[in-house]
Design goal:
The chain is an alpha+beta fold. The chain is built from nine helices and eight strands. It folds into three domains: 79 residues, no CATH class; 49 residues, SH3 type barrels, CATH 2.30.30; 92 residues, Alpha-Beta Plaits. Helix content is 51%, strand content 19%.
Length: 280
């Protein structure tokens, strides 16, 4: 028959006239049925998404889910029309996935999100530090991680940075070490001062259990000798508070024994201007 390969000759499809003339009705019915099913599926998916508690996850699903449904409907429609899309789908999927991962931040962040999850690098509630930013993990998704910073602000870190940059997990390191500088003036009895400060450190009730506070003789500066005291806290976000508590306890104990703290060291760090250079 002359018309059996008319579509193959005109548009290059291996579909003969018999298929088009006599199978067109069932194809139309199938496509119409797929359209109805896609509408039902979209509504069911939207209802399911509304049940998700996390707002960020719900927004992401609202963005991606309809697009996935449309792609599946188009693929099913082409299949119902008698077109073999297996090879084309596999090729396009491979190219699309590779391009998304290699060339787009979106794909890189998604892959990094999977990697950090599999490696179990951090969890919600952990105090972490990445790219000189530290805070408490509030939530995490495939694209980014939300951190609550000590100053009350919020930071969203792309997962690619979490995977590529150096990250510290203070919650799994057994705490965070803080230190304060204690300058002692006028040639103090260092043995007495050391005993006083070591007793203060031993009596502290707030450091992380199992982590011992300690004292170091740091340096000699002018007329002062400088010690540095170290202690461990569980949350780096509270570092200013516990630094103040530690320094206050040490200074109070030293001054009760008549040991001067800080005055000479402050003068040596800020030299006075000679009278000839001073201004009225």
């Amino acid at each position: 028959m002359a018309d059996t390969n008319i579509f193959q000759q005109t548009v290059g499809l291996d579909v003969d006239a018999y298929t088009v003339l006599y199978a067109g009705g069932p194809v139309v019915v199938r496509v119409f049925g797929l359209s109805i099913l896609s509408m039902i599926a979209a509504r069911l998916i939207k209802r399911s998404i509304r049940r998700v508690d996390d707002v960020r996850t719900r927004r992401q699903l609202d963005f991606f889910a309809p697009k996935v449904v449309r792609i599946l409907v188009v693929a099913a429609g082409l299949e119902a029309a008698g077109l073999d899309i297996t090879g084309m789908a596999a090729l396009l999927t491979t190219i699309g996935f590779t391009g998304a991962v290699v060339f787009t931040p979106l794909g890189q962040n998604m892959v990094a999100g999977v990697v950090t999850t599999l490696d179990d690098m951090y969890n919600v509630g952990d105090v972490i530090e990445v790219e000189e930013v530290f805070g408490t993990v509030v939530s995490r998704s495939l694209l980014r991680t939300e951190l609550a910073l000590p100053d009350g602000t919020t930071a969203w870190i792309p997962n690619a940075s979490m995977s590529d940059q150096k990250m510290l997990n203070h919650s799994r390191m057994g705490g965070y070490r803080i230190s304060v500088e204690v300058p002692l003036d006028h040639n103090p009895d260092r043995a007495v001062a050391t005993n006083i400060m070591n007793k203060v450190l031993a009596d502290l009730d707030w450091p992380v259990p199992g982590r011992k506070s300690f004292l170091c003789f740091d340096e000699v500066a002018g007329e002062a000798v400088i010690y540095r005291a170290y202690a461990w806290i569980s949350n780096r976000a509270t570092e200013p508070l516990y630094q103040s508590r530690l320094l206050t306890a040490l200074v109070n104990a030293l001054e009760e024994e008549g040991i001067s703290v800080g005055h000479t060291a402050n003068l040596s760090m800020h030299p006075q201007v000679p009278d000839s250079e001073s201004t009225v």
